[in-house]
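Cast an eye over this sequence plus tokens and explain the fold to me:
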Amino acid sequence: MRCPKDSCEALRCNQLLDEAEKLIDNQGVVSFRFAQIAKQAECSTNTLYKYFESKEDVLVCLFLRNTTSSRIPVFISENPQFNIQQLSVLPILFTFEVVKRSPIFNILRVVSINSMFWQLASSEKIEILRHRVNLFWSCIRAPIEEAVAQGELMATEMDIKELVQSLYFFLAGATSSYESRLMDECYFTPDDETGFRHISRLMNRYAWKTPITQEMMCDMVVRISEFLDRGEGKVRTCETCLATGKRHDCRG
């Protein structure tokens, strides 16, 4: 039920989460049983209950350690040349690339933020989840506010709120549709070029001094892919999760 207090506890907690992720890989998020985690990790159920109250707690923690909000600041620090237009579309592009590489992440995202699910988790996990969801919203909003402050975007407070919501809702719908694989191509085309067109149209409805272009986004996706290929984005630990929880936005 509680987060680890030291490195030894963090090691055990991560081991349990690793085994849970393997179970999801093999059985799916619905079918695996809570008690199986302890068996797979070769520990007692008492040890399992030390960190997790229920299956819902485990799934929330798996989502938390995979969130893009813990990786975006590292990527930004490696690319200080990005202008405010690039930073404004970064959270959307970065999340798309992670979803392409990790179907589990997208499943966990959809399940974890469902109110019928997260309300069954322990109060501590709910509070961390709530903070992380709002942290990602800040990843989208903060650069747009900065663009206004720099004079690169002419927008009112209402414009900012509408744009942030439009980007977030587009991301949520597109990633869910991409992973489901149920829609015919006449309804949904899951390619980068189509996604870039949607994003640029959403962004350029507002008065940017320099428009958001598909070419710019294509270059960014190449950089994001290289970053993820190198593995810096694969560090999924309790320490990283807890450090992320101390931030107020994705800029670190």
About this structure: The mean pLDDT is 88. The first helix runs from residue 7 to 27. DSSP finds 13 helices and two strands in the chain.
